[in-house]
Write a structure and sequence with these properties.
The complex is a heterodimer of chains A (122) and B (106).
Chain A: E1 3-7, E2 10-12, E3 18-25, E4 34-39, E5 45-51, E6 58-60, E7 68-73, E8 78-83, E9 92-99, E10 109-112, E11 116-120
Parallel strand pairs in A: 2-11
Antiparallel strand pairs in A: 1-3, 3-8, 4-5, 4-9, 5-6, 7-8, 9-10, 9-11
Chain B: E1 9-12, E2 18-23, E3 33-37, E4 44-47, E5 61-66, E6 69-74, E7 83-91, E8 94-97, E9 101-105
Parallel strand pairs in B: 1-9
Antiparallel strand pairs in B: 2-6, 3-4, 3-7, 5-6, 7-8, 7-9
The chains are: A mainly beta (122), B mainly beta (106).
């Protein structure tokens, strides 16, 4: 059974940093690209970042480019999101999401974690 | 940047058909996907590759995609279908979500 468990959320002041983790199990983590998706309180889903199965390819949304870095450790079956220079508008539940297909093209998500809440506030 | 537009809300009576649209430039030239999200829960995939249902999704959920519009149709809507629905596609190496539609069944 696929499990994705996010952790690392919390309350942080504007301008500070936070690192999120997503522990994966129940599937061959090292052959799947992985994604982060966020959802601000009462708002819709927003894609944040993608990393290829081996970490060689990374894409980010324009809203986080230059501030957030996605990475992974296949030996630990764990996905990360390093968030720097946090802003109040980054306040959201952050989900890690597994695409249905191994291929990086046209991803869609068959499993989501439960999410971890990040609150950026002074 | 590419945008997907959904109506903010749709209302339907139990047993009737609910139709939720998702509009984007030449959306029909690519695939559309749909997710259901209930309060406090993570999204669940209900339609993939325009019109396919994942295992475990009820037959009353169907989809289509042509031109600039993808459509999610829920036939014989039940109260358990009340949720937010999001369309999604993939453009220029980025995942794009629609703004979401709140489906009310009353």
């Amino acid at each position: 059974q696929v499990h994705l468990v996010e952790s690392g959320g919390g309350v942080v002041q504007p301008g500070r940093s936070l690192r999120l983790s997503c522990a994966a199990s129940g599937f061959s983590f090292n052959i799947y690209g992985m994604h982060w998706v966020r959802q601000a309180p009462g708002k819709g889903l927003e894609w944040v970042a993608h990393i290829s199965h081996d970490g060689s390819i990374k894409n980010q949304a324009d809203s986080v480019k230059g501030r957030f870095t996605i990475s992974r450790d296949n030996s630990k079956n764990t996905l990360y999101l390093q968030m720097n220079s946090l802003r109040p508008e980054d306040t959201a539940v952050y989900y890690c999401a597994k695409p249905k297909l191994v291929s990086a093209a046209m991803p869609y998500f068959d499993f989501w974690g439960q999410g971890t809440l990040v609150t950026v506030s002074s | 940047s590419y945008e997907l537009t959904q109506p903010p809300s749709v209302s339907v009576s139990p047993g009737q058909t609910a139709t939720i649209t998702c509009s984007g430039d030449k959306l029909g030239d690519t695939y559309a996907y749909w997710y259901q999200q209930k309060p406090g829960q993570s999204p669940v995939l209900v339609i993939y590759q325009d019109d396919k249902r994942p295992s475990g999704i009820r037959e009353r959920f169907s989809g289509s995609n042509s031109g600039n519009t993808a459509t999610l149709t829920i036939s014989g809507t039940q109260t358990m279908d009340e949720a937010d629905y999001y369309c999604q596609t993939w453009v220029s190496s980025t995942v794009v979500f629609g703004g979401g539609t709140k489906l009310t069944v009353l």
